[in-house]
Design a protein that fits this description.
Layout: E1 16-25, E2 31-44, E3 50-65, E4 69-76, E5 81-86, H1 89-95, E6 99-101, E7 103-106, H2 113-125, E8 127-128, E9 131-138, E10 149-159, E11 171-176, H3 178-186, H4 193-203, H5 212-219, H6 225-235, H7 238-254, H8 257-263, H9 265-272, E12 273-279, H10 283-294, E13 304-310, E14 318-324, E15 327-333, E16 336-344, E17 352-359, H11 363-379, E18 385-389, E19 394-396, H12 416-428, H13 431-436, E20 443-448, H14 455-466, E21 470-473, H15 482-491, E22 496-500, E23 507-508, E24 511-512, H16 522-530, E25 538-544, E26 562-565, H17 571-581, H18 588-598, H19 606-615, H20 620-625, H21 628-631, H22 645-667, H23 680-685
Parallel strand pairs: 4-10, 18-21, 20-25, 20-26, 21-22, 22-25
Antiparallel strand pairs: 1-2, 2-3, 4-5, 4-7, 5-6, 5-11, 8-10, 9-10, 12-17, 13-14, 15-16, 16-17, 18-19, 23-24
Bound molecules: adenosine-5'-triphosphate.
Family: Belongs to the AAA ATPase family. BCS1 subfamily.
Pfam family, one: AAA
Catalytic activity: ATP + H2O = ADP + phosphate + H(+)
Length: 687
């Protein structure tokens, strides 16, 4: 009707507010007013013309005043979009869903919108930017007002420290790629219109002042800062702008979206460059960091990160190391140029990756990684101990996380350590044997006995001897759930040791010692040990001071194949520890006899004796002279001791081995046993 369909715009008559009355005031968040409105009336005449004809009065037009606000589309230097995954009251109540959200917040009284935008960006995310683009100001509600929304684009954002958001909702900071933002907009993941507007205005090729090519250039990782500068300058310079827009815009429009992809940096990179990615879950990650620093590859870098590495050589057992900081680094390896990026994944710093790139085939990268690995293993070659990071929701380790321990240094009754080691060895070489018989390729050991009797020490001795990694689980971690435990067990590589220490402190019988905790249940633990998800080829070690508190189901054959008792020190153990300690000192042998005449067998733990000897490092005579204080009124452990306990303990081990052997043989299925049967070794253990 009338002037519909014309592209030229004619002058329009605005509504007039004749009077206003406040009907509700709730402090700074909301004031509701009644406005008396005069509404100009236009009538359309024949021939499509229109003219004003008086006015209509609306006596009570509801008008809402609420604070103006800002929204910021923030893009990091690496080309990632900083957004939140949030639960918002209105989105939940009206749309029944969580939402993605850009940075946003209300403008304080007398505050400039840009100042508010900078403040909110820092407070909410910890990022700052020197490159701001004022996108637009608009009202959220066409009829009722509700303040003004000022929309901004912040480019080249840099992380300066953790934000201190005063937002009330639960939220999670995300760093998304441009593709992910596009998908999220199109999939309706942003639940508020001003947010969609903020991001679309930047992203959409035609919607606002930036072309798609410009956005790609402005937000792409590694875009040359000079190009960014030229582009932004061009926005303020008519001549340069025209040339650039003619050139870039013309080119962009000539090419279809798909063609643009083929010109993209990623595609060109994929064509001419090789990339290797290393995640921090892998020990290689730590090896790479140390290798880069130790070999001076980072001399041109001024962004470093410091960390501590354990060392056998350095005093105090550790030394300071440096690695490349977050971001990009370039170095030459064997005459080849390598580009390296260290990237933090997601909103927390528990998960990281390193990207290594070079032109052409990946050979230089492979050689570089092999060299870093060798360097890592050679440097101090400690044992890799993996623990669970709840932030990373997985296993994490550092190179050389624990120094090695020789088996010789763990003093048990003669031949005991060797027997257990032989059992592990037989298991490690019997994978085919297990497979042929359809048996789960798993073995479990229970180390039980008083504190300080060498259970943990033997674990590390075994790991060092076979060069195995240790995956250590803390079952009492309240964050650890049944399903996470299953996932973790499933991730343990073949031929690794899984260690659950002090199980009795988590479960007495089937009862959790922390009844209110949401952590692992007893059945969850059993499933993780031998359920479908239990890792193949893993060796399980449970340790406890109180075997009697454990539910028989936990240690039944199949879950635990060998129970190994540890005892308070026997006479022969004490003698050997003493002689090890004072080796080379004359008269030690006689003194060791004297020591064992003062301390009867089965009275104190090896840890306690070791602690005593440490007080007299070079003075064995005084160590023996004061040894009486060790046995006066103290058993050295929470497990009741008796003078013949050590001997009982030895007998117990013999019995365990016999029981295990019988049990194992009973369980063997069909095919005839071959000489490589792992249990053939058990007959060797029993002397
Ligand atoms: N049999 C042993 N031979 C050599 N050293 C030992 C022995 N037992 C204990 N020690 C020493 O005592 C300390 C504690 O030992 P360890 O942690 O292995 O004991 P544990 O049995 O695992 O104790 P807990 O039950 O409290 O965990 C270590 O420093 C270790 O060197």
């Amino acid at each position: 009707m009338g002037d519909q369909g014309l592209s030229s715009r004619r002058e329009l008559q605005p509504w007039k507010c004749l009077s206003s009355k406040e009907i509700l005031h709730t402090g700074k968040w909301c004031t509701i007013e009644e406005h008396e409105i005069s509404l100009p009336t236009r009538v359309y005449t024949e021939g499509g013309k229109s003219e004003m004809s008086g006015s209509t009065i609306i006596p009570k037009w509801i008008w809402i005043k609420s604070p103006s606000f800002i929204n910021v589309a923030a893009v990091t230097k690496e080309g990632k979009w900083v957004v939140f995954h949030q639960t918002k009251y209105a989105c939940m109540k009206s749309l029944n869903s969580n939402t993605l959200a850009p940075v946003g917040g209300y403008i304080d009284e007398n505050e400039e919108p840009l100042v508010a935008a900078k403040r909110e960006l820092l407070e909410e995310t910890g990022y700052v930017s020197d490159n701001w683009v004022d996108l637009h100001a608009s009202v959220p509600d066409a009829n009722r007002g509700c303040g003004i929304g000022h929309l901004f684009l912040a480019l080249d954002c840099e992380f300066k420290g953790h934000g201190e958001s005063d937002d009330l909702e639960e939220q999670q900071l995300l760093l998304l790629s441009t593709d992910e933002i596009e998908d999220a907009i199109l999939n309706g993941e942003f639940g508020v219109q001003s947010w969609i507007a903020t991001l679309s205005m930047v992203y959409s090729p035609n919607a606002f002042s930036f072309t798609e090519w410009e956005v790609t250039l402005l937000t792409s990782k590694g875009a040359h800062p000079f190009l960014r500068y030229v582009l932004r300058s061009a926005k303020n310079n008519l001549l340069l702008s025209s040339i650039l827009i003619m050139f870039v815009g013309g080119l962009t429009r000539m090419l279809s979206r798909n063609l643009l992809f083929f010109m993209s940096r990623e595609y060109i990179e994929a064509l001419i460059m090789s990339t290797v990615e290393v995640r921090n879950e892998d020990p290689l990650y730590g090896f790479l960091l140390s290798y880069l620093y130790d070999n001076d590859y980072l001399r041109k870098t001024n962004s470093l990160i410091a960390f501590t590495t354990q060392s056998k050589r350095a005093r105090g057992g550790s030394y300071l190391s440096f690695g490349p900081g977050e971001g990009h680094h370039i170095f030459n390896f064997d005459g080849r140029r390598i580009w390296m990026s260290r990237v933090m994944l997601g909103e927390n710093f528990g998960r990281q990756k390193i990207l290594l790139q070079c032109y052409g085939k990946p050979e230089p990268l492979k050689q570089f990684i092999a060299a870093a690995r060798k360097h890592g293993f050679n440097r101090d070659s400690g044992i890799l101990v993996y623990t669970v990071s709840m932030r990373a929701m997985g296993w994490v380790t550092q190179p050389n996380s624990r120094p090695r321990r020789s088996l010789k240094s763990v003093i048990l009754e003669d031949g005991r350590a060797e027997s257990i080691v032989a059992d592990v060895e037989e298991f490690l070489k019997s994978q085919t044997w297990y497979q042929e018989r359809g048996l789960g390729y798993r073995r479990g050991y229970l180390f039980y006995g008083p504190p300080g009797s060498g259970k943990t020490s033997l674990l590390f001795g075994i790991a060092s001897h076979f060069d195995l990694s240790i995956y250590s689980l803390n079952l009492s971690d309240p964050e650890l759930t049944d399903s996470l435990l299953q996932t973790l067990m499933n991730q343990v590589p073949t031929g690794s040791m899984v260690v659950l220490e002090d199980v009795d402190s988590v479960f007495v019988g089937r009862q959790s010692t922390e009844p209110k905790s949401k952590s692992v249940t007893f059945s969850g633990l059993l499933n993780a040990i031998d359920g479908v998800a239990a890792g193949e080829g893993r060796i399980l070690f449970l340790t406890t001071n109180h075997k009697e508190k454990l539910d028989p189901a936990l240690i039944r054959p199949g879950r635990i194949d060998l129970e190994v008792p540890f005892c308070l020190s026997t006479t022969s153990q004490m003698k050997r520890l003493f002689l090890e300690f004072y080796q080379g000192i004359e008269g030690s042998a006689d003194l060791s006899d004297e020591l064992t005449s003062v301390i009867p067998s089965g009275q104190i733990s090896m840890a306690k004796l070791q602690g005593h000897l440490l007080k007299y490092k070079i003075d064995p005579k005084s160590a023996v002279a004061s040894a009486g204080e060790l046995v006066r009124g103290d058993t050295g452990g929470s497990v009741q001791s008796s003078s013949n306990e050590a001997e009982c303990c030895i007998t117990a081990l013999d019995e365990e081995i016999t029981r295990n052997r019988a049990e194992a043989l009973r369980q063997l299925p069909g095919p005839p046993r071959r000489t490589s049967c792992p249990y053939s070794l058990l007959s060797r253990i029993k002397t």
